[in-house]
């Protein structure tokens, strides 16, 4: 499958493949965090999903450039593409559900801050109740995430696509799709580990070293997976850095709210409340931006699937219709 010795590709096809793989290598290198503390920050997860969107857009561009009519697609390729797209849509739905659940926790914190800003006799009782609600909400589990691991296992089982014997364009397509699946599995594995609270199912993918992006991927995977496992082994409640900052603020605030405040501690309460408000806002905004990227990825997968199904019915190149639609949208924006 990985272009064994003796396989021939024309200069044009080889250039298309190399351009795709070099772009993938560049995205992987850019995704490696500059510092270990950046691993699994919401900002890094946003960048990871943004890169994944870029790779899936690149494969559509490659398929269009290959000028490979859908009629020439092997049934196995189509089945793999459609099955994988369904799995990815399921994963996106699960991730979006978890992001929404985490965003809901912000409501509890807003109630805490609102209660503490009032000088009512029961302000501390109300604030403590909201803090308890936040703790229970964060500790709860999202059943939608349980399906993610089995879906990713299914994707991993189809990582090595069928060998292509009589189609040079098919060989390029399969090798490029292999790179897309590897990066997709890596990013989804990290997200699932971050959201589920478990590193047990974190994937360590072994990739073909003939790919131009292999070294960049291996370097990134070792760095991120190692740090992720280290964070979990430390016993932290979460590996999301922004959520950890909020949890730290809650732990500082809770005993003060529980025991009440004397005049000497009033300034301490004010500082802790201010810090919690800032960290809660950063967490909420980070989730909003991440939600937008996950939604964008969902749309890319969905439009790709729809384009293939459309062209199966009417013929033509796989992404011709979608490309025309995108061009019209870009012209409308201009």
From TrEMBL:
It holds the Pfam family ROH1-like. It is found in: Membrane. It is a single-pass membrane protein. The chain crosses the membrane at residues 172-195. InterPro entries: ROH1-like. It comes from the Eukaryota. Keywords: Membrane, Transmembrane, Transmembrane helix. Signal peptide: none annotated. Belongs to the ROH1 family. PANTHER family: BPS1-LIKE PROTEIN. This is Protein BPS1, chloroplastic-like. It comes from Penstemon davidsonii.
